[in-house]
Amino acid sequence: MTNKQLIYQFIQKETEKNLSENRFDFEHNTAVTIAKELYQDRTNVSRILNELFREEKLIKITGRPTKYISRSSLLEHFPFSDLPNVIGKEKGISSYLQFQNQPNQTSFAQSFHMIGANKNGSLYENINRILSFFYLPRNMAKIIVLQGEPGTGKKYFLEEIHTRCIELSLIPNSQKIHYFDFFDFFNHIDQYINKILEKQIITIALIANQKIDKTMINTILQRMDIAFLNQSQKFILALICTNETDNIPFLQYTPYYLKFPSIKNRPLIEYFDLLILFIQNEAQRVSRTIKLTRGFAETLYENTINIHQMKENVVQLVSYSLFLANQHADQNDIVLDEELIQDFLQCSHTRLVLDTFPIADVLVIPPNITYDQIIKEENKEEFKKNYLNTTVWHPNQAQTYYYNFISYNGPLEYSDIKLNTSLYAVRKIINKHLFSHQPDLLNYTSYKIMEEILHPSSLNKRVFPTEESDEMKNITHRISNSLENQKYKISSDTAEMINSILKKTNTLVKGTNIPIILISKYDLLIEQYANLLNLYFQKNIIHIFFLTDEANQKIDDQIEHIFNQVLPYDKGQGIILFTDSKYRSKIGNRFFIYSSTLSHCNKLTSFLMLLKTVSEVVKNNTNVLNITPDILVQKNYEKEYLKNCDLNQYAERTDDPELILINKVMPGINNFETNEQFYKLLKKITKKIDVPLSNLLIRNFIFHCNCILFEHENNILLRTAKEQYQENSLVHIIQENTKDPKIFNGHHLTELDYLTLGQVIESHLS
Q1: Is the pLDDT of residue 162 over 80?
Q2: Are both 117 and 256 inside the same structural domain?
Q3: d(Cα 69, Cα 56) in Å, to the nearest integer?
Q4: Are residues 377 and 417 in the same domain?
Q5: Is 271 within the bounds of a domain?
Q6: 517: helix, strand or coil
Q7: Full domain range(s) for residue 597
Q8: pLDDT tens readout for residues 292-303
């Protein structure tokens, strides 16, 4: 390692240490200290530090002595902070950093998956328009216009934007939105601006319930610009106005001009979703099950003016119903029916507005059950049976097809030239009309179709998907015509089987525009990650590539080979990469600098990070730029969480999101019992090898143990068996501590299992 590399490594280490301890003195990051610590000449150290500074790898803090800090380390902790090259000693680094707190919602994008956010929803355009807002620098004034009638959700939407700004470190976490009446603010503008500067207010919302004119807006913006001229953190100004203000070209002021429709102009499904959401909140508040009738929903809709009034009516009606129940000492469920609402609001029900809307006559809404789980009254027992009980894993047809695909290790071509010509014809049709950016699945599907034609399956062994698809029928017809022209005989049963294969393949590739690539030397771990998540989401979205430390294979050559293999998976929306921290810089640079492929490279840490990334990609299947903020927020939260060791406490393990998800992703596993067994096993192993426990190690070890158990319980294998096993001291210790079959519910572990658990600990140590 060169002197330059040693010095840069020292700076990075000290910067990380200061940040982890919330210290910002960086007292060891000086030329004198570095020279002493590394036994180098001070003059030479100063020269190298200045070189690194000119290369923009270091930030300089002036003073005596001059200090240098790692830019990359700071940006990893504070990705959206605006960092200068030189910082004066009187100002300090903390002036440029915005400190994050734990996100109070699952992720940045999920918070905008609110009611009406789907592709045909009433808020879809607003959400897509506002996304680029979060990429703006802190030193730029930002203006948002939210227009709509009172009670249409404008302030709620603004609060969501403000929360996301805090999560992404665009503004300090102590900031709140300060609301002012527009006309009062205009008439007393000097006093209000002085108050804003004095209290360091950033987000200002001006509410105008009457018509305003362009001159007033110009005056306010000019005065605000002058007031914030010397401020490094510029203001966020939100103008909340009604539809009466229709004479101002707001797009001249800002691209973030958002219009909000009234409740009656939104689709009926959105009204119903809002109603269920409000009632669900009330069920939790009063800890009672609430029954909702169709008549209540229709009457409320007919007498609703806006969302705010609708929410208040729901709260009042639930409270009124609870009052009546207490009067009669009735401990049964609360019933919201037509008679109750007509009695309380003194209103009538004349129109059947929801007559054609597909809802049950009675919906049961228990406390602590989300909207997705709400059921019809008549299906309540079936719901309890199917939802609340832990059942064994029953893969559907798409999952079975995927498992057969990853388990297959036979030929994908024929030695016969004629058969290969037919195979290529099938492959060409599927490549053109179904999917083209998943070469492995394309080859497998084409070969399975040819095998079905050559060796038809017996009908009594087949189960066809019930959903019909004109697109799949069309592709089946094209394949049949092509092969019949080559003198193959395609029966109706064979055509039906081809159609079935295409449907299952289509399920796996639909909605996978942004592939997720795992690159690691821990092959068994990423195989479990990828195959388990692909099975769970029923998508062939995660693809894996292995690295090796073998002396005869240079790492740069391996990365170049993987780079060429990954490019065909890019569909134009970019790719998301996860890799070992050791290789992240090289792999990230290879994709970002030397190719036109849009990419985002992350450190491979835990299963939860991958699951959330896949979930975001499946829901927001647009491009990498829209997904990146979500990943950054989750990554920062996870980094803070995983550096501690809270999971050595039982209460924390029972409440950990990743450990709870095990039962969802691996049905049939009683993870509340297995997690404790595997935690005790890990404690024994780490004690033997003298390795301290951490949240990351506990999470990953318990996850992979459950995954191994899931494979044994269902007689499947999500990893590739090896021809030879290299036993080492760590694997031997794991074997010694897992002799009791009770640890894995009576299953005896294999050499592959021992090696997998060894990789978990090795990856942690590295």
Answers
A1: yes
A2: yes
A3: 11
A4: no
A5: no
A6: strand
A7: 516-642
A8: 888 888 888 888
- In CATH, what number is assigned to the domain containing residue 610? 3.40.50.510
CB 101: neighbour CB atoms within 10 A? 13
CA nearest 401: which of 448, 467, 434, 461? 448
Question: How far apart, in whole angstroms, are the C-alpha atoms of residue 654 and residue 615?
Answer: 23
The answer to which of 369-383, 509-523, 632-646, 720-734 has the lowest mean pLDDT is 369-383
**Alpha-carbon gap, residue 406 to 400, rounded angstroms:** 10
**Token duo for residue 145:** 């216009």
Q: H helices within 656-727, ranges in order?
A: 657-665, 671-689, 695-714
- pTM: predicted TM-score of the whole model, two decimal places: 0.54
Q: Is residue 276 part of a domain?
A: no
Which amino acid is it at 216? Answer: M
| CATH assignment at residue 213 | 3.40.50.300
Q: Are residues 638 and 651 in the same domain?
A: no
Whether 712 contacts 747, CB under 8 Å: yes
Q: Is the pLDDT of residue 99 over 70?
A: no
For residue range 436-492, what is the model confidence (pLDDT) as tens digits? Answer: 788 899 999 999 999 988 888 654 344 444 445 678 888 999 999 999 898 888 888
Taking a C-beta distance cutoff of 8 angstroms, is the pair 412, 449 a contact? no
Asked whether the beta carbons of 74 and 97 are under 8 A apart, the reply is yes
Please list, in sequence order, all residues whose beta carbon lies within 8 angstroms of the beta carbon of residue 488, skipping any fewer than 6 positions away.
Answer: 422, 453
3-class state of residue 161 by DSSP: helix
Distances (CA, A) of 469 to 3, 87, 476, 505, 569: 64, 62, 11, 13, 25
- Looking at residue 191, its pLDDT comes to 93
C-alpha distances in angstroms, 234 versus 86, 189, 200, 219, 662? 20, 17, 10, 17, 44
Q: What is the pLDDT of residue 695?
A: 87
Is residue 525 pLDDT above 50, yes or no?
Answer: yes
Tokens for 177, please give them. Answer: 């939105």
> Do 637 and 655 fall within a single domain?
no
Within 10 A of 753 (CB to CB), how many other CB atoms are there?
A: 24
Torsion, Cα 193 194 198 200, to 10 degrees, reads 10
* Dihedral (Cα; 173, 177, 178, 180), 10-degree rounding: 170
Residue 85 CB: number of other CB atoms within 10 A?
A: 11
- Whether 221 has a pLDDT exceeding 90, the answer reads yes
Average pLDDT of the chain?
Answer: 83
Element (H, E) at 313: helix 307-327
Q: 278's torsion region: left (phi>0), alpha (psi -120 to 50) or beta? A: alpha
Bridge partners (DSSP) of residue 178 are 204
Q: Distance (Å, rounded) from C-alpha 271 to C-alpha 301?
A: 8
Distance CA 757, CA 752 (A): 9
DSSP string, 226-251: HHTTT-SS--EEEEEE-TT--SS-GG
Report, as an integer, the average pLDDT of 264-283.
Answer: 86
Residue 350: pLDDT over 60: no
Contact of 287 with 331, CB cutoff 8 Å: no
Residue 414 has pLDDT above 70, yes or no: yes
Residue 273 lies in a domain: no
Phi, psi (5° rounding) for residue 206?
-105, 120
Residue 124: is it exposed, middle or buried by C-beta count within 10 angstroms (0-12/13-18/19+)? middle
pLDDT at 356: 53
CA proximity to 530, closest of 440, 411, 634, 410: 440
The pLDDT confidence band at residue 720, using thresholds 50, 70 and 90, is: confident
Segment among 93-97, 364-368, 505-509 with least mean pLDDT: 93-97
- At residue 245, the pLDDT reads 82
Residue 571 pLDDT class (50, 70, 90 cuts): confident
Residue type, 479: I
Identify the pLDDT of residue 376: 42
Residue 636 and residue 650: Cα distance in Å, rounded? Answer: 25
